[in-house]
Amino acid sequence: MKKFVFNDYSIIKPSKEIQKDWKDNYLSQLNSTDNGLRVTIIASHSGIVNTNMKFYVPSRMEDGVQSFVGEKPRKIIKHHKLDEDPVGIIRSAEYVHTIPEELRDLPEIVTLTDPYASEEEQLKAVVDFIQTGIPLTESWTGLGYIKLVADIIDEKAIKEVVSGLFDSVSTHFSPLPGSVFCTCGRNMVEEGPCEHERGEIFKDEDDNERLCLWVPMAHHNKECSLVNIGADSRTSISINSEEEEEQDVVGSYLDSEFLSKTIENKQFFQFRDFKEDITMTVPVKKEELSEGVQKILVAITEWRPEGKAEVLESHAKKIFQACDEEGKLPEQELAGIDDATAMLYALEDLENSDQTIDADTIYVEIVKELEELKMEDSKLAKEELDKLPLSSFAGPERSFPIHDEAHLKASSVFLDKYQGPGNKISILASINRKAKAMGSDLGSSDSTSGDVQEPEVKETNEEKDSFATPTGEEIKSLKDEEIQVLFAFAESELISRDLKAARDCSTCASHLETETQLTEKLETQKKELLDSADTLKVLRQELKFQLTDYVHQVDEYITLDLELKKAKLEKVAMVNVLSGKYKDQEEALVDLNTMSFTDALASQEAFSMKDATTKLNDGLGTAPEGKVVTPAFDESADTAGLCEPAKEAISNIKAFLEDGEEEEARNLFVQMDSLDLFETSSTDAKITFESIYNEIKGSDE
Questions:
Q1: 234 is a domain residue
Q2: pTM above 0.85, yes or no
Q3: Residue 53 falls within a domain, yes or no?
């Protein structure tokens, strides 16, 4: 295949004298204005073939010129880098006609400048006009151009313009919603890309040679960039003087003799005669792309004209893979945006995928939007923002707060400017869901991006003259996509006229009030739950301490219980020894330990104290030799608190004393005292033999 590469354009640089005048004027302006450097820009031209192999129709370019200065004037940036800060702002825009007098009545020119001509009629006029060879002539300056007045505010950019470093511009616009035709006749929006390469010479059905060009039928302007070399090299930048005179158009028209001869003799241009003046190249065969990927690639190439082809192809493939069967991206319908806007958002997400979202910086910008909306009283401190639940944000890392109507609107406005990471479609869908729940009317965004596959709402000449409100049946017959387009246009017009819809939702206010009440109730319950959690934590700690004390007490109880059982067993063993069941206490304990504790207590033998005394006198005990030292007598001692064996022993001792058997009585006392049976529980006093003796002797006297 053959491809055109035009080398006949030249950048016209200002002379040194003009540059000096510019610098002097610039210095004087800096002292008189706060708007920076005021410049006049000659931007895109219609009626020419630019180096991107595109032809702009005059009437279509004129229709779109005011998009430079709509509700939000477009910005001046560098090299189409949308993610970098702008260097200026466009103040005014107009379309200037430059049709030579000799060509005004040429049928092709009449059709191209007719605002009511159909797309098909104007496409045919483009093909015929190219065949004349006029648009391909070096001295041809086109049928018109866009004239912009802008303020360059960035200090570095001012110096670059004044020095002549930047003297050319490139505009960025979207042809969608609308149609983009190839000179072969194919509508690439509705039918997909054709098989021809831009700049290729091909033959039509009648075997006529044609030059493949793209002809957009709509101009939704996005920005104007300062560039080194633009696709339209006839562009220029000039610094305004205090008494600005109308600029002459750069270049010169064709001479009248050539034009008259061309028109009179219908001498259409022959490509074979022109081939010597252009460079022919053979394009490298590319990988075959699917029709869907090609459509997306067409759109993103318009947005990123200086992007690398392989990178744009990769992005187009990824965007296509994310689309569903109907060509919609995830959550696109909830976001309420057309296909082109969704595609642009997806492209920006891919370009910023390696960045990290900064919620703090985003909130700084949202606060600025609150101030612009006169809602600065709604801004929150960082501590207050951190307390909001996750449901009060749209976007990753709690980045776009939407808890109230003020932040909802501010986030929506800022999102249209936001160029950072994060899924913008998903964020916008969350904002719209919240707005619907709150009954808030956010209006349409400022996005003028189009839809690659969105059908055009066509308008005939008759419809332009008079508009009839469509009936209900007519609306029902529209496709879903057409309804969406119609609604978007109507909503945009309502906002621009500061009108309200004919019907408002009567329950939105009550829904919002209910949501507010439930939110407050939820916050109260959340606080109560946190307080209860703190209380529960304290109780758990206290229970832990009490459990530790309880374990210690149980251990102590077990120890005391074992000691008590041991004492009881020793008592039973002694009694059983006294009763004659065992020879000694050791033998008795061995036998008792083989029984259960209950059986051991039940095994205690009954015995009389007299038998025990006799047994003791028979050998268990003997009277001590020499003088027996007895404990001191305590007059206050009594038998209260003594065990039954002790009481019975005292009774027997008294019986021995009454019978005059004092020695037997003393031996019995000594034996029983060795068992500590005479310790009382009621007093600290101890029963002595003398107390018993004196009691008996005293009663005798």
A1: yes
A2: no
A3: yes
